[in-house]
Amino acid sequence: MLTFTVAATEAAPSASLWRAVKPVRAAEGHSQFDGHSPPVAAALLAGTALLASPRTARRRGRRAPVSATKGDEIKFASKSSGEAAALPTLPLQQRAQGIAEALPALARLSGSIVVIKYGGAAMVESPERTIRDVATLAAMGLKPVLVHGGGPEINSWLAKVGIEPKFVRGLRVTDAETMEVVAMVLMGKVNKGIVATMGAAGVAAVGLSGVDGGLLEAKKVDDEELGFVGEVTGVRGDVLLSALEEGLVPVVATVAADAEGNFLNVNADLAAAAIARALEADEFVLMTDVPGILRDVKDPDSLISEVDETGAEKLIEDGVVAGGMIPKVTCCLSAIKDGVQATHIIDGRRPHALLEELFSTGAGKQGTTIRQN
Question: What's the pTM?
Answer without folding.
Answer: 0.77
